[in-house]
Design goal:
The structure is a single chain. The protein has a single domain, classed as Glutaredoxin (3-Layer(aba) Sandwich), CATH 3.40.30. The strands form 2 sheets. A 7-stranded mixed sheet has the order 3-2-6-5-4-8-9. The chain has a 3-stranded antiparallel sheet with strand order 1-10-7, covered by helices on one side. With 185 residues, it is α+β, with helices and mostly antiparallel strands. The relative contact order is 0.26. α3 links the parallel β5 and β6. Helices cover 26% and strands 23% of the residues. The protein has 5 helices and 10 strands.
Length: 185
Protein backbone atom coordinates (compact mmCIF):
# COMPACT_ATOMS: atom_id res chain seq x y z
CA UNK A 1 0.00 0.00 0.00
CA UNK A 2 1.74 3.10 -1.26
CA UNK A 3 1.23 6.38 0.65
CA UNK A 4 -0.61 8.62 -1.79
CA UNK A 5 -1.75 12.26 -1.65
CA UNK A 6 -5.04 13.71 -2.93
CA UNK A 7 -5.12 14.94 -6.51
CA UNK A 8 -6.79 18.19 -5.38
CA UNK A 9 -9.73 18.56 -7.76
CA UNK A 10 -10.09 22.26 -8.71
CA UNK A 11 -12.11 24.37 -6.27
CA UNK A 12 -15.48 25.37 -7.67
CA UNK A 13 -15.92 22.05 -9.52
CA UNK A 14 -19.55 20.89 -9.58
CA UNK A 15 -20.04 17.65 -7.67
CA UNK A 16 -20.15 14.77 -10.15
CA UNK A 17 -23.42 12.87 -9.88
CA UNK A 18 -23.57 9.18 -9.11
CA UNK A 19 -25.95 6.35 -8.35
CA UNK A 20 -24.36 3.71 -6.13
CA UNK A 21 -25.51 0.92 -3.84
CA UNK A 22 -25.66 1.76 -0.14
CA UNK A 23 -24.43 -1.44 1.49
CA UNK A 24 -26.22 -0.56 4.75
CA UNK A 25 -29.66 -1.13 3.21
CA UNK A 26 -28.98 -2.54 -0.29
CA UNK A 27 -30.68 0.42 -2.02
CA UNK A 28 -29.31 2.43 -4.93
CA UNK A 29 -28.80 6.07 -3.95
CA UNK A 30 -27.91 9.16 -5.93
CA UNK A 31 -26.00 12.25 -4.97
CA UNK A 32 -29.13 14.26 -5.68
CA UNK A 33 -31.11 12.45 -2.99
CA UNK A 34 -28.26 12.42 -0.45
CA UNK A 35 -26.96 15.99 -0.74
CA UNK A 36 -27.65 18.77 1.72
CA UNK A 37 -28.87 22.31 1.22
CA UNK A 38 -26.12 23.41 3.65
CA UNK A 39 -22.96 21.40 2.90
CA UNK A 40 -22.21 17.90 1.64
CA UNK A 41 -19.10 15.93 2.52
CA UNK A 42 -18.14 13.19 0.07
CA UNK A 43 -15.37 10.99 1.39
CA UNK A 44 -13.63 8.05 -0.18
CA UNK A 45 -12.80 5.54 2.53
CA UNK A 46 -12.39 1.79 2.87
CA UNK A 47 -12.23 -0.83 5.60
CA UNK A 48 -8.63 -1.98 5.46
CA UNK A 49 -6.57 1.21 5.11
CA UNK A 50 -4.67 2.06 8.34
CA UNK A 51 -5.10 5.80 7.61
CA UNK A 52 -8.89 5.38 7.53
CA UNK A 53 -8.89 3.05 10.54
CA UNK A 54 -6.89 5.71 12.43
CA UNK A 55 -9.57 8.38 11.82
CA UNK A 56 -12.86 6.54 11.39
CA UNK A 57 -14.23 6.83 14.92
CA UNK A 58 -13.57 10.57 14.92
CA UNK A 59 -15.12 10.87 11.44
CA UNK A 60 -18.27 9.21 12.81
CA UNK A 61 -18.31 11.67 15.74
CA UNK A 62 -17.81 14.63 13.37
CA UNK A 63 -20.61 13.41 11.10
CA UNK A 64 -22.94 13.11 14.10
CA UNK A 65 -21.98 16.60 15.30
CA UNK A 66 -22.34 18.31 11.92
CA UNK A 67 -25.51 16.49 10.89
CA UNK A 68 -27.21 18.58 13.58
CA UNK A 69 -26.11 21.63 11.54
CA UNK A 70 -27.64 20.28 8.33
CA UNK A 71 -24.47 18.79 6.84
CA UNK A 72 -24.70 15.45 5.03
CA UNK A 73 -21.81 13.00 4.92
CA UNK A 74 -21.49 10.35 2.20
CA UNK A 75 -18.87 7.59 2.38
CA UNK A 76 -17.80 5.76 -0.78
CA UNK A 77 -15.53 2.72 -0.97
CA UNK A 78 -13.88 2.47 -4.40
CA UNK A 79 -11.39 -0.38 -4.01
CA UNK A 80 -11.02 -3.47 -6.17
CA UNK A 81 -12.24 -6.19 -3.82
CA UNK A 82 -10.21 -8.87 -5.57
CA UNK A 83 -7.12 -6.98 -4.40
CA UNK A 84 -8.62 -5.88 -1.08
CA UNK A 85 -11.22 -8.47 0.03
CA UNK A 86 -11.67 -6.69 3.39
CA UNK A 87 -13.38 -3.92 1.39
CA UNK A 88 -16.16 -6.17 0.05
CA UNK A 89 -19.77 -5.01 0.47
CA UNK A 90 -20.47 -7.61 3.17
CA UNK A 91 -17.53 -6.39 5.22
CA UNK A 92 -18.45 -2.75 4.52
CA UNK A 93 -21.93 -3.47 5.88
CA UNK A 94 -20.44 -5.02 9.03
CA UNK A 95 -18.09 -2.07 9.68
CA UNK A 96 -20.93 0.42 9.13
CA UNK A 97 -23.09 -1.46 11.63
CA UNK A 98 -20.37 -1.96 14.27
CA UNK A 99 -19.23 1.68 14.10
CA UNK A 100 -22.82 2.96 13.73
CA UNK A 101 -22.17 5.04 10.64
CA UNK A 102 -24.59 7.99 10.59
CA UNK A 103 -24.08 8.21 6.82
CA UNK A 104 -24.57 5.97 3.81
CA UNK A 105 -21.65 3.71 2.88
CA UNK A 106 -21.70 3.35 -0.89
CA UNK A 107 -19.87 0.77 -2.97
CA UNK A 108 -18.26 2.09 -6.17
CA UNK A 109 -17.94 -1.27 -7.92
CA UNK A 110 -16.91 0.13 -11.32
CA UNK A 111 -14.73 2.85 -9.74
CA UNK A 112 -16.28 5.39 -12.12
CA UNK A 113 -17.32 7.67 -9.25
CA UNK A 114 -13.78 7.68 -7.83
CA UNK A 115 -12.50 8.58 -11.30
CA UNK A 116 -15.13 11.32 -11.69
CA UNK A 117 -13.96 12.87 -8.40
CA UNK A 118 -10.29 12.33 -9.30
CA UNK A 119 -9.94 10.48 -5.99
CA UNK A 120 -6.49 9.06 -5.34
CA UNK A 121 -6.38 7.78 -1.79
CA UNK A 122 -8.31 6.66 1.24
CA UNK A 123 -9.26 8.78 3.03
CA UNK A 124 -9.98 11.50 0.47
CA UNK A 125 -12.35 14.32 1.54
CA UNK A 126 -14.45 16.77 -0.50
CA UNK A 127 -16.80 19.45 0.85
CA UNK A 128 -19.41 20.89 -1.49
CA UNK A 129 -21.39 24.01 -0.66
CA UNK A 130 -25.16 24.49 -1.04
CA UNK A 131 -24.70 24.98 -4.80
CA UNK A 132 -22.79 21.67 -4.89
CA UNK A 133 -19.58 23.46 -5.85
CA UNK A 134 -16.30 22.22 -4.37
CA UNK A 135 -15.25 24.42 -1.45
CA UNK A 136 -12.67 22.13 0.16
CA UNK A 137 -10.60 19.08 -0.74
CA UNK A 138 -7.88 18.06 1.59
CA UNK A 139 -6.87 16.43 4.82
CA UNK A 140 -9.00 15.73 7.85
CA UNK A 141 -6.19 17.04 10.06
CA UNK A 142 -2.43 16.59 10.61
CA UNK A 143 -2.81 13.27 12.45
CA UNK A 144 -1.48 10.07 10.85
CA UNK A 145 -0.92 6.57 12.25
CA UNK A 146 2.34 6.53 14.19
CA UNK A 147 2.56 10.33 14.23
CA UNK A 148 2.36 11.99 17.64
CA UNK A 149 -0.46 14.35 16.65
CA UNK A 150 -3.91 14.03 18.22
CA UNK A 151 -6.90 13.54 15.96
CA UNK A 152 -8.93 16.76 15.85
CA UNK A 153 -10.53 17.03 12.42
CA UNK A 154 -9.48 20.70 12.50
CA UNK A 155 -8.95 21.13 8.75
CA UNK A 156 -12.25 19.55 7.74
CA UNK A 157 -14.20 21.21 10.57
CA UNK A 158 -12.75 24.64 9.85
CA UNK A 159 -13.78 24.32 6.20
CA UNK A 160 -17.25 23.07 7.17
CA UNK A 161 -17.73 25.95 9.60
CA UNK A 162 -16.89 28.44 6.84
CA UNK A 163 -19.26 26.78 4.34
CA UNK A 164 -22.09 26.68 6.90
CA UNK A 165 -21.63 30.43 7.52
CA UNK A 166 -21.56 31.12 3.77
CA UNK A 167 -17.93 32.24 3.96
CA UNK A 168 -15.18 31.44 1.50
CA UNK A 169 -12.89 28.61 2.58
CA UNK A 170 -9.20 29.42 2.49
CA UNK A 171 -7.65 28.23 -0.77
CA UNK A 172 -4.61 27.05 1.21
CA UNK A 173 -5.59 23.42 1.63
CA UNK A 174 -3.32 20.51 2.50
CA UNK A 175 -3.87 17.31 0.50
CA UNK A 176 -5.21 14.29 2.30
CA UNK A 177 -2.89 11.32 2.40
CA UNK A 178 -3.39 7.62 2.80
CA UNK A 179 -3.50 4.34 0.96
CA UNK A 180 -3.66 4.51 -2.80
CA UNK A 181 -6.98 3.43 -4.29
CA UNK A 182 -6.79 -0.20 -5.42
CA UNK A 183 -7.74 0.23 -9.07
CA UNK A 184 -9.28 -2.52 -11.16
CA UNK A 185 -6.86 -4.09 -13.63
Amino acid sequence: MAYTLSNMLPLGTKAPDFILEDVTDGKMKSLDELKSEVATVVMFICNHCPYVIHLIRDIVDTANEYSEKGVRFIAISPNDIEYAPDDSPDKMRLIAKVLQFPFPYLYDETQQTAKDYDAACTPDFYIFDKKMELAYRGQYDDSRPGKDVSISGKDLKSALDAVIKGEKVSEKQIPSGGCNIKWLP
